[in-house]
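Q: How would the structure tokens look for this protein?
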Amino acid sequence: QVQLVESGGGLVQAGGSLRLSCAASGRTFSTYEMGWFRQAPGKEREFVAAVSWNGGSTHYAGSVKGRFTISTDKAKNTVYLQMNSLKSEDTAVYYCFGGSDYEYWGQGIQVTVSS
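A: Here is the predicted structure in token form.
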């Protein structure tokens, strides 16, 4: 089993920045990919970004490309999401995921961007 714990959310003004962290514990060798989804009120959960744990390849949703950066710290078993130039439409609960088929999820963390 893998446990994922998110941190770093909060309230920020439009144009500002936040960095989310997701720390993995447990059987982390089974975490082939890690990343983030988000869910805004009344909307479906949507993909944000992901990183291959071994190869380091990344991919992003078009709506965040150029503004968000995903990275890893293997020594800390942690994945980060640096979010810059935040917009009100980035307001959502952000969920960290991990595994080979999205089998592990964090509890979610709120990000609110005020306009």
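The two ends are 40 Å apart (CA to CA).

The mean pLDDT is 94.

Upvote if useful.
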